[in-house]
Write a structure and sequence with these properties.
Keywords: Cell cycle, Cell division, GTP-binding, Nucleotide-binding
Protein name: Putative cell division control protein CDC3
Shape: globular
Bound molecules: guanosine-5'-diphosphate, magnesium ion
Strand order of the largest sheet: 2-3-1-4-5-6
Distance between the termini: 53 Å
Order of helices and strands: HEHEEHEHEHHEEEEHH
Strand content: 15-25%
GO molecular function, one term: GTP binding
Number of helices: 8
Family: Belongs to the TRAFAC class TrmE-Era-EngA-EngB-Septin-like GTPase superfamily. Septin GTPase family.
Largest sheet: 6 strands, mixed
GO cellular component, one term: septin cytoskeleton
Helix content: 25-40%
Radius of gyration: 21 Å
Length: 297
């Protein structure tokens, strides 16, 4: 191997370096209370990031605006560390008048862009902290009808600022046929309103298996998800994460039952870097250049 230069080893170097530094990822969840946001996050990362919450007493004062709450956790799997931050948006869509529900969320995403921009402009920018939101899971109510005005308004306001990943919440409350036609109507609405959702890119220089896997993921959007932090015994004696019904068990990790596995595949196993890259190269870049133009730079 005389002519071997050695750059074929670059991927391993990058890999070792990232493993040493650890990975960071910030994910936002948006949708009305009770749609299963906290449960899905727990299910996705197999953590109790969100403790089961106590039901507030009826006389407790309810907040009147959308709050933004961020929680971080260091999770580790086979020696690889991931610093996960989840940005929750309690209150979204919960009020009598939800006209401006999207506003504090846009503000939060932009202030994270600003914090990054500010670091880039420093003289010493050795270590940039990336607290930008890399993905936003938007929970659609399982109505079976079509998108509601609040869904469309939110997605239109946000689609050029964050990678939008729409999911059909609590899909165990719909039949398979209802899910199929609901998905189609949701996609039609998204196309009609020219909303850009995150599309896992398919590169044709990848092997056939990867291409087929990616196409399979794309076909499932908007993912019909079911979350659960309970383990349940099935009739045939397996212990699974799922939800029990009189007629049987809905298994979270069973692709015949819901699209949870495909969502996890895209978000965590195959496209986390892609989501971060697209946030930096396209979404942040657009924000940054528009901001510089506005400042007359
Ligand atoms: P959040 O307010 O959106 O964070 O919703 P939570 O995760 O707190 O869940 C609200 C309630 O819905 C809880 O009682 C959950 O057990 C239940 N829940 C969560 N995910 C699902 C789901 O996929 N299907 C069904 N049927 N119920 C769910
Ligand atoms: Mg919650």
């Amino acid at each position: 191997l005389n002519g071997y230069v050695g750059f074929a080893n670059l991927p391993n170097q990058v890999h070792r370096k990232s493993v040493r530094k650890g990975f960071t990822f910030t994910c936002m969840v948006v949708g009305e209370s009770g749609l299963g946001k906290s449960t899905l996050i727990n299910t996705l990362f197999n953590t109790r990031l969100y403790a089961r919450k106590e039901v507030p007493p009826p006389h407790a004062e309810r907040p009147k605006t959308v709050a933004i709450e961020s929680i971080s956790a260091d999770i580790e799997e086979n020696g690889v560390r991931l610093k996960l931050t989840v940005v929750d948006t309690p209150g979204f869509g919960d009020f009598i008048n939800n006209d401006d529900s999207w506003k504090p969320i846009v503000d939060n995403i932009e202030s994270r862009f600003d914090a990054y921009l500010e670091q880039e402009n420093r003289v010493n920018r050795a270590k940039l902290l990336d607290n930008r939101v890399h993905a936003c899971i938007y929970f659609i109510q399982p109505t079976g009808h079509s998108l509601r005005p609040i869904d469309i308004e939110f997605m239109r306001r946000l689609h050029q600022k964050v990678n939008l990943i729409p999911v059909i919440a609590k899909s165990d409350t719909l039949t398979d046929d209802e899910i199929l036609s609901f998905k189609q109507r949701v996609l039609n609405d998204i196309a009609h309103h020219r909303i850009e959702i995150f599309h896992a890119p398919v590169y044709d220089n990848e092997d056939e298996e990867t291409i087929a896997e990616n196409e399979e993921i794309i076909r499932k959007i908007p993912f019909a998800v079911v979350g659960s932090d309970q383990e349940i015994d099935t009739a045939d004696g397996r212990r699974v994460r799922g939800r029990a019904y009189p007629w049987g068990v809905i298994e979270v990790d069973n692709e015949a039952h819901c699209d949870f596995v495909k969502l996890r595949q895209m978000l965590i196993r195959s496209h986390m870097e892609e989501l971060k890259e697209h946030t930096h190269d396209a979404l942040y870049e657009k924000y940054r250049s528009e901001k510089l133009v506005a400042m007359g730079v």
